[in-house]
Design goal:
Length: 201
């Protein structure tokens, strides 16, 4: 069952980041369907969070997508190398986003292996935010598209529920030392038992 747009339009970005764990992120790129279970996320609150590209309500051509109603993609180039995939969340005008940091491949694995030039699945097939995009075929061209359409979507099994707290490991986010005290916020969420999360401490 696809997650509805209302799921992404809740104004609690931290709750959304936690609740995405265990869902499946799907793509249909160049006719190839691929998917992975979301096992790691990070939350970014653009109004108060110094780690966010939209901190304090900043508006630039790049961050304008943050002010869209939740449920669209935000892709950007990190360190000039890696495309990172985020989902904009919250009501229109509220600049929140969730970064998808790692997935456990589960559909279209042969396609993902080819994209990653891997002969077999390993942790780093999609165990990091740039690797998620590579495995799923997501590029900067997918910036601003609806998450719930025919290109990128997220599902949850009808029988599954959000994970209990004892199955989730919360810790500070990765690579945000510049964010002063906000760097210590425990807004990185991982499925505690998953071998597919990123290796970053």
């Amino acid at each position: 069952m696809k997650l509805s747009q209302t799921f992404f339009q809740d104004d609690d970005v931290v709750a959304i980041a936690r609740n995405l764990l265990g869902c499946r992120l799907w793509t249909c790129i160049s006719g190839h369907i691929t998917a992975g279970e979301i096992v790691e996320t990070e939350a970014y609150d653009g109004l108060t969070d110094r780690a966010s590209h939209a901190f304090g309500g900043k508006r630039t051509p790049r961050t304008e997508i943050f002010y869209h109603s939740g449920g669209v993609s935000y892709t950007y180039l990190c360190y000039g190398i890696h495309t990172l995939f985020n989902i904009i969340t919250g009501p229109a005008g509220v600049p929140h986003a969730v970064l998808i940091r790692a997935i456990a491949p589960c559909e279209g694995i042969d396609v993902m292996l080819k994209r990653r030039n891997h002969s077999k699945l390993k942790r780093n097939t999609a165990g990091g935010p740039g690797l998620v995009s590579l495995a799923l075929g997501i590029t900067r061209e997918h910036n601003g598209i609806a998450v719930g359409g025919e290109i990128i979507w997220v599902t949850r099994d009808r029988s599954s529920k959000t994970l209990p707290d004892d199955r989730i490991h919360a810790s500070p986010r990765v690579g945000v030392d510049y964010a002063d005290r906000d760097a210590a916020l425990p807004w990185r969420f991982r499925i505690a038992s998953s071998p597919w999360t990123s290796p970053a401490k």
